[in-house]
Design goal:
Number of helices: 7
CATH topology: Rossmann fold
Radius of gyration: 15 Å
Number of domains: 1
CATH class: Alpha Beta
Order of helices and strands: EEHEHHEHEHHEHE
Strand order of the largest sheet: 3-4-2-5-6
Largest sheet: 5 strands, parallel
Strand content: 15-25%
CATH superfamily: P-loop containing nucleotide triphosphate hydrolases
Shape: globular
Number of strands: 7
Distance between the termini: 19 Å
CATH architecture: 3-Layer(aba) Sandwich
């Protein structure tokens, strides 16, 4: 049993971090924090506009500052952006104060889930499948190395995924009060 004050979901875009996370947080009595949504609330604009105005580096700097702040809390289920794990500082903060669950999903499943989503700056361009495959090769090993638990969410409805993940967490994660 791994003790930690927060539960953290990592994984690629379209894995279900927000939808599964929201449902799971409600079931577990945790506050739900979606990092991308929190950034949008703070800036008053969307992630694509932040990317457009500040570039990916500007967005990542904002994301890192937000993660540093959010991870000081406890009793939260934190859904990170897909690229949040690229920064060592973020990985360290997530590891220090979170039980980390990697939501795994196949590229075909991502394509299906993201088919009508126009809010993904990293998917701008003609060949979304090639881009998702490249991101999976780059980020997959990072997700796997960071995770306390890998969970295959491929093809699962949100409620089913939340049910199965909740059952696994009962034997793997112990919520603690942080010092």
């Amino acid at each position: 049993m791994n003790p930690a004050p927060n539960l953290v979901l990592i994984g690629p875009m379209g894995a279900g971090k927000t939808s599964i996370g929201r449902k799971l947080a409600a079931r577990l009595g945790l506050d739900f924090v979606d990092c991308d949504h929190r950034l949008e609330e703070r800036t008053g604009t969307s992630v694509p506009v932040i990317f457009e105005c500040e570039g990916e580096a500007g967005f990542r700097a904002r994301e890192t500052a937000l993660i540093a702040e959010v991870m000081q809390g406890q009793g939260q289920l934190v859904a990170t952006g897909g690229g949040a794990v690229l920064a060592e500082e973020n990985r360290r903060r997530l590891r220090e104060r979170g039980f980390i669950v990697y939501l795994q999903v196949s590229v075909p499943q991502q394509l299906e889930r993201l088919a009508r989503d126009r809010s993904r700056p990293l998917l701008a361009g003609p060949d979304k499948q090639a881009r998702l495959e490249a991101l999976a090769q780059q980020r997959g090993p990072v997700y796997a190395a960071l995770a306390d638990l890998a969970f295959d969410a491929d093809g699962l409805a949100v409620a089913t995924a939340a049910d199965r993940l909740q059952a696994l967490l009962e034997t793997r994660w112990q919520r603690t009060e942080a010092a």
